[in-house]
Structure formats: structure tokens, C-alpha cells
Amino acid sequence: MPGKRSWVARIVLFVFLVWSLFPIYWLLTTSFKAPTEVSKIPPRWLPQLDLSAYTTALASPDLQASLLNSFVVALGATTIAVACGVLAGYALGQLATTDTARYEFWVLTSRMAPPIAVALPFFLMFRVAGLQDTLVGVTLAHVVLVVGVVSWILIETFRGLPPALLESALLDGCSYASAFRRVLLPLSMPGIVGAGSIAFLLSWNEFFLSLILTDVDARTSPLALYQYVGFQSLDLGQLAAASCAVLVPTALVVGFFQRQLVTGLTMGAVKE
Amino acid sequence: MSDSTLRERRRSGGKRSSSRPPAAGRAVTAGALARARTRRLFLLPLTALLVALTVVPFVYTLVLSFTNMAPTEASLRFVGLSNYAELVGSREFWSAVRVTAVFTVSAVAIEFVVAMAVAVALTRVTRGAPLLRALFLLPLAAAPVASLFNWRLMFNSSFGLINYVLGVLGLPQPDWGADAGMPLLSLIIVDTWQWTPFVLVILVGGMSAIPADVYEAASVDGSGSWSTFWHVTFPLLRPFVLVALLFRGIDALKTFDSIQVLTGGGPGTSTTTLNYFAFREGISFLNFGRASAAAMLLLLVAILLARLLLRWLRPSKEEAR
């Protein structure tokens, strides 16, 4: 089959590649343009290397604070979700003796549910509990967002480990808990890293819950960007530079964890 | 590990291991107890988390949907189904349903057709396919607010790149923020950019699961490439197509970021989807009762679709029962 009519395939792929990457290219070139070139018509297509937008944008205390907040929240949400997910993965993927479909349906529901159904109660409860506009509050909300995906991947990971491992550890005198700690946990590391990186990415990119549950103090970086957009007078090159700064972690995750990203986003519908 | 050994193990565990040597019987029973105890213990944190962070909020939203909660109401009371009745009777609600339907159906359909074409094209090239697949993922992972802001600039009517290019090509330059239908079209375009990779990933995974000899048999039978696609590839791909459409469909229903950054639901209510409607009712207007009712309707759709999806994601479970 390959070879025959493959020029049509090449054209399709080329067009799709340009379509997918051009907006990202455009954002990058905009961020490296001199301030006078940014919104010029006709536009300057080829990149310049003017760093002034970056030096100004990255010096902004608001952006710095929001990047730090995002980092803390993403790390916190990831840790909580992965810790619970690993334990549940062992319980459901290795120890379960009966059908686990009902529990998994629950996990899947938390992935499918519209965030607005948790955002409204959180919005009300957080005010009463003093969690509005705090890092703890946003972190908890982000846990809701990532816990379904993370648990799903980890259940799959533990299910993928041969049952003989657990059996021989038990024969060697391990308890169920120590078999987990000494044998199965180390072997599930790739799944943990993958699930963790996706959780980090989802939390890092999250906008909706942060918009509702933070004001100033706990503002995450997507929100800081969004509030820049509100001020039309602001220099667009700086905005592009700030956007690129927010994009760096995502590019890294795609580069290193492509396979896990696919598994996580599709809830294991695709095995690569 | 194969599914059959998994089922074997489960069955033997479920029967308290009657297949084991009789001498080990008591130890195995004690082991089964310890196993059950450990399982419950290890499942506890996730269960607690899911109850506290999803079940409690959902129940709260459900209860709110039966109340008149809003800052304009003097006293909080139960109003039965009247929030739902009001929703179904209001013009805004049906406008939101219509916008949601148009947006979801057209975005998902376009994404599906494009992803299918690209997935087929990927099977025809011999070199570079893995690199291409990685590059195609970028729009999916890029921080939405950053990439959406970029799209907003490109759609700008006075200095945006899109209208400049349309002008150079001698094509009409619409006002993307105001002309009839254009704001919704711009949302669909952006959604296609961001989410086609997701559908693509599932379809590519499905195609790689089709054995090569199926194609060989088809070409021996003298089947042309178009008819091979329709009669061989597509039927075998069906479960993956269903999973892709379901996932994408439910996520499209929840679309928020692009609406908030690009159109704000406007002009008027022309780009206000049901999800955005619930957000605006609840967070901007503080009509918690009404907003909760709308959120519950969305949640109900999500739960029904999750039920359907689980059947395709975990087919072995159904067989094992």
C-alpha cells in the first residue's frame, strides 16, 4: 500500500502540519519581535531576535507570582492525586477479587463531569471555609480535575503487572503491604511518572476553576495571562512573551511523556 | 498480561482459592482476609477524596437546584422543580441548547473528518510518522489561554493576520467578532485546531491495531483503496470511532476557555453554550438555583455518556460477568 498515491498523503500531512504548528510559530515570532513590529500590517513573517518583550514581561512581579502559584498548585494537586491513585491502583489492579467496574465507573464519571457542577458549590463553600483565593483551595479544586485521569492510568498500570510478582513476594513472606512497597511500587514507576506529568500539565493549563476560585493572591498563570488580555493597551509582544513562558512546561511534557499523555487523555482507549 | 489470566486470577480469588492444595487451605483463607483488608485500606484515600471532592459537591449542586438561592431572594427555601421548569420555559435556555448543539456537532464532525484523513495519510508514509505524530500533539498540550489569546489576535479585524491574508487573496474580510455567525465559526475553527489531534490519536491507535494481512487479503481480492477503506478499515475501526466521538462530544459540551477568551458568549447570546450559560447565571449573576439546575442537566448527560463509554473501554468486564 505505501507508495501508491502517497503524494496525496504527503500533501494532506503537510497542510495539517502547517495548520497545527503555524499558530504556535506565530506566537513565538511575535514574542521575539521589536515592539514597533508587533502589530504591523503587512506583518513581518520571519523571526527577529529582540528580547525586550521577555525582559519586561518576565520582570513583572504579577507574572512571577502567578508562575510560582501555578507551580505550587500543580505540584500539590499532582502529589495528592498520585498518592491516592497509586494506592487505589494496587487495590483495584492487583488485589481486587471481584468485578471493579462500578468503582471504575465512578472514577470515569469524575473525568467526564462538567467542572461547573463542582465550581458552584466550591464557590459557595470556599467563602464560608476561608479557602477562596488561597493556594490550598485552588489545589483542592485541581485535584478534582486530575484525580480521575491519574487513578485510571494507575489502575491500568497495576493491572498490567503480572500477578506472579505478587504471588512470589507473598511466598517469600511479604505481607500485602510490604509486597506493594518492595516489589510492585518500584515496578509501577513509569506509570506514576506518566500520570504525574499529565496531572501537572492539566493543572498547569487549568483556567476555569482558577478563574472562579481565585482573585489576586492565589492567581495562577493562565489567569494572569487572561487578565493581561483584558487590558488592550498592554504591549502585545510582552503578552506573547508571557504566553511563551507559560508554554514551556507543556512543550517539555509533550517531548518527554508523549506516550503517557496519549494514554491519559484517552483513558487508555488507545494502547501504543 | 493477557485478560484471560487476569480473569482466571480473579475467579480463583473470588472462590477463596479452592484450586490450591488442601494443606494450604487455612493459610489461604487467612491470606484472602488479609488481601481484602489491605484492599479496603488502600482504596480508602481515593474513596474519601472522591466523596469529599465530587460526590459532596454534586449533591450540593443537586440540592441547590431545588432552591431559590440568589442574593435577590430574602429567604432561602425549596422551590421544587421550578428552576427546571423556568429553564425549560425560557428563551435563553433554548438558545443555549441550540448554540451548544451547533457548536458540538459541527466541531466534532469537522475534527472527525480531518482526523480520519490525516490518520489514513499517516499510514501511507513510511518515514517520519512518529515525529509527525509528536508534532501534531502540540496544539492539544499548549496552555489554552496562551494559544487562545494568540488566536484572538489573529482574528482581530484591524491588524489580525487572518483578515490580512484573506485581503491579499482577494477574499471577503469578515468582522469575526460581530458579523452574523462569525463568532461561532471562529470558536469552531479554534476548537478544530486544538482538538483534532485528540481524535487523531485515537484513530491512529485504532488503525495500528488492524493486522496488515487484512489489507493484503483485500488487495488480493482486487479491492480499490477507497472501497478497502469503506469495507475493511472503517468497520474494524468502529469501536475507536465511537470512543473518540463520545470523549470529544462530552468535552465539547464543556467548552469554556475559548468562549471566555474569544467571544465572552456574545455578541448577545450568539455563542453562549449551556455550560457557559450555567457559568454566567451562577458566577456572574449569582442565581445559584438556576445555574445549579443547568449544571445538573449537563452532569446528567455526562453520567449517561460515561456509562456508555465504560462499555467500550472495558469490554472484558462484561464478558467476565
CATH topology of the largest domain in chain B: MetI-like fold
* Global mean pLDDT of chain B: 83
Shape annotation of chain B = flat
Summed up, the helix count of chain A is: 13
Order of helices and strands of chain A: HHHHHHHHHHHHH
- The N- and C-terminal alpha carbons of chain A lie at a distance of 22 Å
* Rg of Cα set of chain A: 23 Å
The CATH superfamily of chain A turns out to be MetI-like
Task: Give the name of the CATH superfamily of the largest domain in chain B.
Answer: MetI-like
What would you say the CATH architecture of chain A is? Orthogonal Bundle
| Proportion in helices of chain B | over 70%
Biggest interface, chains and residues, is:
A-B, 114 and 118 residues
- CATH architecture identity of the largest domain in chain B: Orthogonal Bundle
Give the DSSP E fraction of chain B (strand runs of 2 or more residues).
under 5%
For the report, how would you describe the main beta sheet of chain A?
none
**Strand and helix order of chain B:** HHHHHHHHHHHHHHH
Describe the structure.
- Chain A is mainly alpha-helical and 272 residues long.
- Chain A is 75% helix and 0% strand.
- The mean pLDDT of chain A is 86.
- Chain B folds into 2 domains: 3-64; 82-320, MetI-like (MetI-like fold, Orthogonal Bundle).
- In chain B, helix 2 (25-64) runs antiparallel to helix 14 (288-313), helix 3 (82-89) crosses helix 14 and helix 9 crosses helix 11 (225-253).
- Chain B has 321 residues and is mainly alpha-helical.
- Chains A and B meet through helix 1, helix 3, helix 4, helix 5 and helix 6 of A and helix 1, helix 2, helix 4, helix 5 and helix 6 of B.
